[in-house]
């Protein structure tokens, strides 16, 4: 907190609890850090890489003899790294200056200080943008953010001058902004007229702008000193430490609970039906044990809480187990202990833990870093998670007793006087149903920041995505979640109770869900964001109602809640996987009914006419200090999500594996929902295998369901290898998923749901790629199984139509077909080859069944099948093609001309790929069938 030193403030920490410093020191620290950041980068750059950083696209040394800011801070190690570390430390004092200046200048009769404050925030964020996104990373984004930064300087400085207290003439005279005009002049001389040496003079004015900017902000110290503005830094109270421990425990609760479904569904994938592992779902009913009074009483004691949560950590340690069956048993036991422990405390920090879990997945490529399906090789941070969990338990075990504890022991009698026959809030049945539906909704849609993006995704148009990309806009989902949870925290309890249980608020949630389900691209994403706000905002009220109504018999309340959650889990899976399960056909493609059922169940937590609510319980009545700490946590989580997005911004632009050669390497792979043969995440192993492919079709990739962990299989690949990605039809399209990865720009793409009157829906992606200046159509599909003959025929006819319509343009088909080579109709092969006007990449290879590569209008130079590795049990098929000269169409190719053979020594080196590109650790039992000159 900050204030004038001459004023007295009541109810503030004493001298032992706070540290008071002059606000001018904040400005001084900012000045020193900023000068150190830029100065060290300039000195190191000139000392280590002088000739490299003065060179530009027009000229080099000696015509150019002074480096620009961008070249100095963004091109070379170690100056870039040191600069970014120092500038990150500088961000704290810089935001503080913006806030303190607003605090000093705010006026009730003028909104100008508020606008200046907004410009200061945007200016600071844009500065971070052009600092961390360098011209080498993305030249256009870097320039746009730099221009935005310069433009924001104008209202920031002029507004600051106008708002300066009248008596502070010294600081008013020393505010200036004069270097932009000559800087623009020399930039035009360099960029437009391409005059050697002009960029050096531009650089002087660019550095001058930075220096003057830093000095301008340093002048605020004079204002702070003359106004006697002071900053009081309150030491972190035990309440804040305890809240941090509770949030950490809630995070571990979500991590353990969400890991059970991914652990058990591994077996269902291999069986393609019920495997028996589904019985582990009944572990979710373990809170019924709280119906035993002695157990409930013990579970709410300090000893009981510590013991149960310590036992639940076996779920984190399960990552050491390589046997999937043993791992399932251990994770199931961990869920039992975790559910009993946290349900005894009514999961008061459920929302904060969910946001932290979603943030950890966003930072770790959509995988929770402490899931037992991960280890050190697959992106896990299990040991760190266990260490932090033990620290949280240590804090819990040493926590002094609180006078108003939020466990069930402190809720005895709360709300019991309002139990009336028509009182929905205190009827255990209604609150239990609402709790079960809300818990499933949070897990299904908000446990990963990219799930609602996948619901809205439709592909590319005019070389640009039609909607948000997960790795770039996942942070927006986290911001929406934080906003939703902020509403009940900052509002007075009476107002929060009235708003968040009003039927108008429920109507807002229904409209948001309708937009999310029925619309796509940005509008659908906006609906999803509003639905996230709605769901997060009602967590405290739903939890409060469940705590009040279920106090006397919490076992039955929680049993029904989690029984309903299990039913929703099963229904959600059956909407897409109905072909392999008894009774699944009744849930076929009915996500709409599941969503309606979710909302109908949650409606019981709202005030309807002729119903009377009692006052809500303590979940909505936190102390002021707890509310402040909660707001601080939400602010940190929100800022962290943005920083994570910037940190994971792809540093490698998509580039063909063999640029400039006309060679295109394509592959098709069914990856079984990102589980390898031992039930671990296969994202990084897939990356290591396909890194030399230009176009990849991955099948069975729709992982945005609870049983798959709500994951995005493309995050590591797109960030580290540089691919354009089309995620294919989303989870609301009820398919098993298909994904396109391309090193070539995607001009446009379309998603198809192939005809499926009987079996599961078959997805297909039709994309037009810019391959060395030639438009090449790529079709990726996952056809239905052989049990449904009519489905297979209709799907094959539709795929043939899609491929034939662009004849004679080049086309590559990468698909999961399930047929024997040359099988007569109604098998798919003849439809695809003859009706689709395509060629089989190797008509003599009769040892194929699932996957096929077909092509047209390209030179086929190589083909291989790689099977029986440890990444998945299906084979990777690879084809190498060469694009014809621009404007030349290949038509009516004979089989002899298409299948010419040659020794690799007779061909250019770029036509040959050696076999060691497949990592040896993934080739256990490897089988390779190759043809052409690929190997």
Overview of the molecule:
The chain is of the alpha+beta class and about 950 residues long. Helices cover about 50% and strands about 10% of the residues. The protein is built from 30 helices and 18 strands. It has a 7-stranded mixed β-sheet with strand order 8-9-7-6-17-16-18, with no helix packed on it. A 6-stranded mixed β-sheet has the order 10-11-12-13-15-14, with helices on one face. A 3-stranded antiparallel β-sheet has the order 1-3-2. β12 (about 775-780), α28 and β13 form a beta-alpha-beta unit. α9 runs antiparallel to α13 (about 325-345) and α26 (about 685-690) runs parallel beside α27 (about 715-720). The longest helix has about 35 residues, at about 240-270.
Q: How many β-strand stretches?
A: 18
Task: Report the helical percentage.
Answer: 40-55%
Q: Please state the CA-atom Rg, rounded to the nearest Å.
A: 31 Å
CA distance, first residue to last residue:
67 Å
Low-confidence stretches: 1-17, 169-180, 404-425, 923-927
Please indicate the percent range of residues in DSSP E strands (runs of 2 or more): 5-15%
What shape does the CA trace take? globular
Tell me about the largest β-sheet. Answer: 7 strands, mixed
Chain-averaged pLDDT: 82
Order of adjacent strands in the largest pleated sheet: 8-9-7-6-17-16-18
Write the layout of secondary structure elements.
Blueprint: E1 2-4, E2 18-22, H1 24-54, H2 69-74, H3 79-105, H4 112-132, H5 139-163, H6 169-173, H7 180-191, H8 198-226, E3 229-234, H9 238-271, H10 293-299, H11 302-312, H12 314-317, H13 324-344, H14 350-363, H15 382-397, H16 428-446, H17 451-456, E4 460-461, E5 464-465, H18 470-490, H19 493-500, H20 503-518, H21 521-537, H22 539-549, H23 554-577, H24 591-602, H25 624-647, E6 663-670, H26 683-690, E7 695-699, H27 715-721, E8 724-726, E9 738-742, E10 746-754, E11 762-771, E12 774-782, H28 789-804, E13 811-816, H29 828-835, E14 839-840, E15 851-856, E16 859-867, E17 876-882, H30 895-898, E18 927-932
Parallel strand pairs: 6-7, 12-13
Antiparallel strand pairs: 1-3, 2-3, 4-5, 6-17, 7-9, 8-9, 10-11, 11-12, 13-15, 14-15, 16-17, 16-18
Helix pairs in contact: 1-3, 1-8, 3-4, 4-5, 7-8, 9-13, 9-14, 9-15, 9-25, 11-13, 11-15, 14-18, 14-25, 16-22, 16-23, 16-24, 18-21, 18-25, 20-21, 26-27, 28-29
């Amino acid at each position: 907190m900050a204030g004038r030193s001459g004023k007295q403030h009541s109810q503030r920490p004493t001298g032992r609890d706070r540290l008071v410093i002059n606000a001018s020191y904040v400005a001084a620290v900012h000045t020193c850090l900023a000068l150190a950041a830029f100065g060290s980068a300039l000195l190191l750059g000139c000392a280590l890489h002088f000739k490299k950083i003065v060179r530009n696209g027009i000229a080099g040394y000696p015509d150019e003899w002074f480096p620009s800011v961008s070249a100095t801070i963004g091109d070379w190690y170690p100056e870039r790294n040191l600069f970014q570390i120092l500038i990150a430390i500088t961000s704290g004092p810089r935001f503080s200056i913006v806030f303190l200046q607003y605090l000093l200048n705010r006026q009730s009769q003028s909104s100008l200080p508020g606008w200046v404050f907004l410009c200061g925030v945007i200016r600071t964020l844009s500065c971070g943008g052009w600092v961390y996104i360098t011209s080498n990373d993305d030249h256009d984004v870097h320039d746009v953010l730099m221009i935005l930064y310069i433009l924001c300087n104008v209202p920031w400085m002029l507004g600051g001058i106008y708002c300066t207290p009248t008596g502070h003439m010294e600081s008013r005279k020393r505010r200036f902004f004069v270097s932009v005009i000559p800087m623009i002049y020399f930039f035009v001389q360099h960029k437009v007229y391409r005059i050697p040496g002009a960029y050096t003079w531009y650089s002087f004015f660019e550095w001058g702008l930075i220096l003057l900017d830093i000095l301008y902000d340093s002048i605020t110290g004079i204002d702070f000193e003359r106004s006697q503005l002071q900053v009081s830094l309150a030491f972190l109270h035990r309440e804040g430490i305890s809240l941090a421990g509770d949030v950490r425990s809630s995070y571990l609760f979500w991590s353990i609970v969400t890991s059970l479904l991914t652990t058990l569904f591994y077996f269902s994938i291999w069986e393609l039906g019920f495997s028996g592992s589904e019985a582990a779902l009944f572990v979710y009913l373990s809170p019924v044990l709280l119906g035993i009074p002695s157990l409930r009483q013990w579970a709410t004691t300090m000893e009981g809480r510590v013991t149960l949560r310590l036992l639940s950590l076996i779920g984190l340690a399960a990552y050491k187990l390589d046997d999937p069956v043993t791992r399932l048993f251990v994770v199931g036991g961990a869920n039992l202990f975790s559910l009993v422990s946290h349900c005894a405390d009514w999961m008061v920090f459920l929302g904060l833990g969910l946001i932290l879990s979603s943030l950890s997945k966003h930072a770790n490529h959509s995988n929770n870093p402490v899931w037992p399906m991960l280890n050190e090789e697959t992106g896990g941070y299990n040991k760190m998670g266990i260490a932090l969990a033990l620290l949280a338990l240590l804090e819990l075990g040493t926590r002094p007793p609180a006078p108003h504890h939020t466990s069930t022991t402190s809720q005895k009698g709360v709300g019991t006087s309002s139990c009336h026959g028509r009182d929905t809030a205190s009827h255990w049945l209604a609150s239990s149903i609402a709790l079960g539906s809300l818990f499933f909704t949070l897990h299904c849609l908000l446990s990963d920041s990219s799930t609602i993006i996948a619901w809205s995704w439709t592909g590319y148009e005019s070389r640009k995505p039609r909607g948000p990309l997960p790795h770039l806009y996942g942070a927006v989902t986290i911001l929406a979640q934080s906003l939703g949870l902020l509403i009940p925290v900052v509002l007075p309890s009476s107002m929060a109770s009235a708003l968040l249980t009003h039927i108008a608020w429920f109507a807002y949630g229904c409209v948001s869900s309708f937009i999310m389900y029925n619309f796509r691209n940005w509008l659908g994403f906006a609906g999803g964001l509003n639905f996230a706000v709605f769901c997060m905002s009602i967590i405290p009220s739903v939890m409060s109602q469940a705590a009040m109504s279920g106090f006397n018999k919490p076992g039955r309340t929680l049993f029904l809640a989690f029984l309903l959650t299990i039913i929703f889990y099963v229904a959600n899976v059956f909407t897409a996987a109905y072909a392999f399960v008894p009774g699944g056909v009744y849930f076929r493609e009915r996500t709409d009914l599941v969503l309606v059922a979710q909302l109908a169940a949650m409606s019981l937590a709202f005030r309807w006419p002729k119903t009377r609510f009692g006052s809500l319980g303590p979940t909505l009545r936190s102390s002021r200090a707890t509310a402040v700490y909660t707001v601080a946590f939400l602010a940190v989580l929100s800022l962290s999500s943005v920083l994570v997005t910037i940190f994971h911004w792809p540093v490698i632009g998509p580039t063909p594996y063999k640029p400039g050669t006309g060679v295109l390497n394509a592959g098709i792979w069914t990856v079984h929902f990102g589980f390898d043969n031992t039930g671990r995440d296969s994202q990084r192993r897939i990356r290591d295998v396909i890194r030399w492919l230009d176009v990849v079709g991955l099948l069975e990739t729709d992982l945005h369901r609870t049983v798959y962990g709500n994951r995005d299989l493309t995050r590591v690949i797109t960030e580290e290898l540089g691919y354009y990605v089309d995620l294919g039809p989303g989870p609301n399209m009820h398919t098993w998923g298909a994904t396109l990865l391309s090193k070539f720009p995607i001009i446009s793409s379309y998603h198809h749901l192939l005809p499926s009157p009987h079996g599961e829906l078959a997805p297909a992606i039709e994309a037009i790629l810019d391959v060395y200046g030639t438009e090449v159509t790529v079709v990726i599909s996952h056809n239905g199984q052989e049990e449904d003959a009519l489905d297979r025929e209709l799907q094959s006819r539709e795929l043939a139509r899609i491929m034939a319509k662009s004849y004679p343009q080049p086309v590559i088909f990468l698909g999961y077909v399930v047929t024997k080579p040359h099988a007569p109709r109604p098998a798919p092969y003849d439809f695809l080859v003859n009706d689709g006007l395509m060629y089989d990449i190797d008509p003599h290879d009769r040892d194929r069944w699932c996957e096929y590569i077909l092509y047209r209008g390209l030179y086929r130079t190589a083909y291989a099948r790689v099977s029986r590795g440890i990444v998945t049990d299906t084979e990777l098929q690879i084809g190498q093609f060469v694009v014809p000269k621009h404007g030349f169409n290949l038509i009516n190719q004979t089989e002899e001309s298409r299948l010419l053979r040659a020794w690799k020594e007779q061909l250019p080196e770029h036509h040959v790929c050696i076999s060691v590109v497949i990592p040896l650790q993934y080739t256990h039992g490897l089988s390779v069938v190759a043809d052409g000159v690929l190997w």
